[in-house]
Amino acid sequence: MPPSPSAARADRADDVLVLTRLSAKRGAVRAILEWLTRRTGGPAVLVGADGAVLAAPGGTPDPGSSPSAVRAATAAVELHRRGAPSAVLGGDGACPVHLVALVAPGSGTGTEAARGAVAGPVYLAVVRPDDPRCGVLLADAARTLALCWRLEEAERGRRRVESAELHSREAVLHLLMVGSVPAAQRIAGALRPVLPAVTQVYVIECPSDRRREIAVRIDRTARGRAWIVPCPVRPNHLIALVPAEESAGQRPDPDPGPDPGSDRLDRLIARDVPECRVGVSADVALRDTPVGYEQAFHALAVARDAPERCASFGGHTDVTVLAGPEGRTWAGELLGPCLRYAPTRRADPGPRELLDTLGSWLSFGGAATRHLKIHRNTLAARVRHLDELLGLDIGRCLAGQSAAWLALRLHTAPWTAGAVNAATADRAATLDALLATPAAEIWARAQLRPLEQARVTAGPETVRAWLRADARLPAAAATLGISLPGARKRLAKAEDALGRSLLRAPSAKYELWLAMRALGTL
Q1: Which of 404, 434, 407, 403 lies closest to 421, judged by CA?
Q2: How confident is the model at residue 376 (pLDDT cuts 50, 70, 90)?
Q3: What's CA 451's distance to the chain center, in Å?
Q4: Backbone φ and ψ of 23, nearest 5°
Q5: What pLDDT digit, counting tens, does each position of 482-496 carry?
Q6: Which residues contact 371 (CB under 8 A, 6 or more apart)?
Q7: Of 24, 120, 156, 369, which has the fewest beta carbons less than 10 angstroms from its beta carbon?
Q8: How far apart are CA 522 and CA 520, in angstroms?
Q9: What pLDDT is attached to residue 432?
Q10: CB of 342 closer than 8 Å to CB of 367
Q11: 35-63, pLDDT tens digit by residue?
Q12: Are strands 86-89 and 277-280 parallel, antiparallel or unpaired?
């Protein structure tokens, strides 16, 4: 016996109230479909005009392959062909399919397809025996579902745009790290802000699950002028390129009155975001972003234990002081086989890719897979190939790694004109000959002076033993006759004295190895 009109109205009111409550839930579309399945006694799904099942009740395994879903998909294609907004199709001994269009046929513009969203009408389909009351229920549900579906589609579109921008920003950082400055500037010009000609690199350590939130807060603190990128290698790091005048707290239009924003930006970040530790490089040209990143990473090692939770790079003399004619000749000869390499297959990496792999391996070790977006087996194969080309063991030997690191630095350093010293003009271009120059001795003493002046207990001896062990801590501890935690503690104190990172990559181990080799103490 059908219900009375008053009872039907009460049931409809209850149904609309339930739909309203479900629409406010997270995952409203799926929740409404689950409720409709229980309410009607037949499976409820959303189907596109092409027959694709777009949404189904939660817990449905492979919803597109069930017999009911196949029948609903076939009926949706037929209804779209007819151009009707709703219908009951099927029958012939089987349960009919009740369909209602969430978006009327013909109302799409193609903008959704351009965004990657679903184009064309979307149908609510329920497979169940015919019931006059089902049409009213589905009409009410379709109106609510249409709004929820549009909201979820908009959210999916927002995430796609956000992901595209994130990957574009990461691409800009990668281009800067491999020296492709013009290409990076072209991409950055479209995304904003523009890349500064002179910048300070910030490495900001923060909780990995809050990177997005903290990036927004830092961008607000930097007044939108910082280029902020989540580190592709370390999930708890943010990298920011900040114009030098902004980092120093200097506004483009100076205010003669007191300016609370005149404090250094790293201190403002540490004050506003207490969960952060901030390392800041010296002022570097945009082409020297890789140098700035390493400087900021070394400063971060100091910031972790600093009371103010931030630190700037200590200003050690850069190794590019060795980039004279002798240094460039040696670097060119060492890297020559790689620079002249012609891949035998189209899929093989060329000289540029191999140099990028070499730099990433020396900076990040095994984490270079995340930086280069390659498989670990691909990375291992490239490292072995580089070993053969360069005649060095860059996979395990610190001496080979240090030589390759120095050669890369000198190869990419700005050219400094100068005459070749007559005393060294006929000398073979070797690493030992380069480290025997007066400039190398001055540079080496500057690297080791902070460790010697800090009077850290057995500091130089511990660092020397660690370097002789190819930067392997267990072997160094065994040589020193101390425990592994004891050796780690000594190196942590050496980090504080040097203001450099030793135990985390990118490490200062290459510079220290070269410095001790230049002074003959290794």
Answers
A1: 434
A2: very high
A3: 34
A4: -65, -20
A5: 999 999 999 999 998
A6: 174, 232, 233, 360, 363, 364
A7: 24
A8: 6
A9: 92
A10: no
A11: 998 888 888 999 988 888 888 886 555 66
A12: unpaired
Residue 110: what pLDDT? 43
Neighbours of 216 (CB within 10 A): 11
pLDDT score recorded for residue 458 = 80
> Letter for the amino acid at 422?
A
Q: Give me the residue label for tokens 């020559």.
A: 336
Region 88-94 average pLDDT: 70
Identify the DSSP state of 261: G
DSSP structural state of residue 320: G
SS3 415: coil
Radius of gyration of the chain (CA): 32
pLDDT of residue 83: 86
User: Which among 428, 340, 354 is positioned nearest to 387, based on CA atoms?
Assistant: 354
- Per the structure block, which two tokens stand in for 370? 């995340």
How many whole angstroms separate alpha carbon 393 and alpha carbon 445? Answer: 27
Q: Is 209 helix (H, G, I), strand (E, B) or coil?
A: helix
DSSP 416: -
Comparing C-alpha atoms, which of 244, 282, 285 is closest to residue 413?
285
Q: What are phi and psi of 74, to 5 degrees?
A: -65, -40
Asked if residue 201 lies in contact with residue 295, where contact means CB atoms within 8 angstroms, the answer is yes
Cα angle value 156/161/163 (rounded, 5°): 90
CA 252 to mean position of chain CA atoms: 31
Contact (CB, 8 A) for 200 and 283: yes
The answer, yes or no, to whether the previous bond of 506 is cis (omega within 30 of 0) is: yes
- 405 — pLDDT class (breaks 50, 70, 90): very high
The answer to whether residue 339 scores a pLDDT higher than 60 is: yes
Distance of CA 295 to the CA centre of its chain: 19
Q: Could you tell me how many helices (H) and strands (E) the chain has, helices first? A: 21, 11
Say if CB 180 and CB 289 are below 8 A apart. Answer: no
CA 266/CA 268 separation, integer angstroms = 5
Give 275's Cβ-side CA count (13 Å radius). Answer: 14
Residue type, 292: G
Extended strands (E) in 90-235: 97-101, 122-127, 198-205, 227-230
C-alpha distances out from residue 219 to 193, 232, 319, 482, Å: 11, 19, 33, 46
In contact, 8 and 92? CB cutoff 8 Å: no
Distance CA 142, CA 366 (A): 52
- The DSSP string of 323-380 is -SHHHHHHHHHHHHHHHT---SSTTS--HHHHHHHHHHHHHHGGGHHHHHT--HHHHH
Distance CA 399, CA 406 (A): 11
Closest CA to 392 of 340, 435, 351, 337: 337
Q: Is 344 exposed, middle or buried (0-12, 13-18, 19+ CB in 10 A)?
A: exposed
- Distance, in Å, from the CA atom of 471 to the CA atom of 466, rounded to the nearest integer, reads 5
